[in-house]
Amino acid sequence: MVQETDGRHSGAGGGVAGVTNASNEMQTTSTQNTQYDQIGTKYLEIKQLPAVEPEVPSILAALGEGGVKGKKCLGMLDFTTFSQNIRTLLEVFSSIALSDQPEMRVSLINASVNIQYDVFFTPMWHNISTSSSSHLPSNNPIQPPTNPPPPPPDLACGTGKYTHLLSTLGATSATGHDISPTMIASALTLYPASQFPTLHFSTHDCSIPSSLPVQATGSYDLVFSAWFLNYAGSEQELTNMFRVVDAQMRKGGRFVALTTDVHDVDMSVSKLGFYGLDVLVLEPRYVAPDTGVEVGIKARVKVGGGQVAGGFEFDVFQFRREVYERCALRAGLRIGWRGVVVPDDERRGTGYWDEWLRRPTFAMLEATRVGEEGGG
């Protein structure tokens, strides 16, 4: 079952208010916060809810048959939902039939714009010595040994489940960027360069285009992100994220992303008991702090109500379609919107997903550079 949405590519220009520095990157007050510091690994429980089940089939449909074969791929992940994304991508790429030993390079990037994850990830790394942070470089990649041994059969970063993911992809190199020193210190402890010479880790703020390594620019056929763009709370932050994407794509490249639902005409109306989630609208007419323009809503997602022990909540931004399109166009990208897909199981055709399809929890987008054809 597929929800058909407008597949036409579209975009609109527009100016942005603010102060521009020498690198043409707007300086605005960050809209990010430390809301996840006290949630910890409770966030993993959201993966159990029906509301997120359509993610994997929707991503597979957007990538398309053969869309990953032999490609150099970049995964841009928000480590707030790090473990959820691990599981999602693990399922996605494990389901894709790849050519024999395709050469791929996968980079995992944290999209956050402030250090909000140090406490959030501490519970996940409780068995890791805190002294490892003393070995952490600042905004510098960790280099492999001069004469590295052959790549290990299992490559990984993060919590370790990417070992299977990267092995499935046949990756020859993996790079992890994160703004949190705690996250990088943990990765370094789990995957020292002496044992994992093909893994590279460094700290970077991925909302700032110039913060990423120059040598990585223009390297990827396919850039993919899940719950990355929706952490922008201003037009400039969203534009900068698109600029990061543009900088990583090679000529003819393609960007596929999962973000909050941009099409919901009723987004200002709260969704209570919605497939395991409560979505409470905090600001039904959210105004971007940099432009003074109404762009969508700010909402609070609540997980609990007896389904998840302890429960938790977090705030999100949900921008409208035209906001994404104009911010992407400022970065030189043109967006096309893809449909969402629900699981093909016994619930299909029973009406179970009807309300979800009317107001999905996410939207899928595809973007290419203005003036370029899609990266085939």
From TrEMBL:
InterPro entries registered for this protein in UniProt: Methyltransf_25, SAM-dependent_MTases_sf
Ranges annotated as biased composition (Polar residues): 20-33
A Pfam family of this chain: Methyltransf_25
Comp. bias regions, Low complexity: 132-141
Protein's UniProt name: Methyltransferase domain-containing protein
Biased composition (Pro residues): 142-154
Domain Methyltransferase: 154-253
Superkingdom of origin: Eukaryota
Membrane-spanning intervals of the chain: none
Disordered: annotated span: 1-33, 132-155
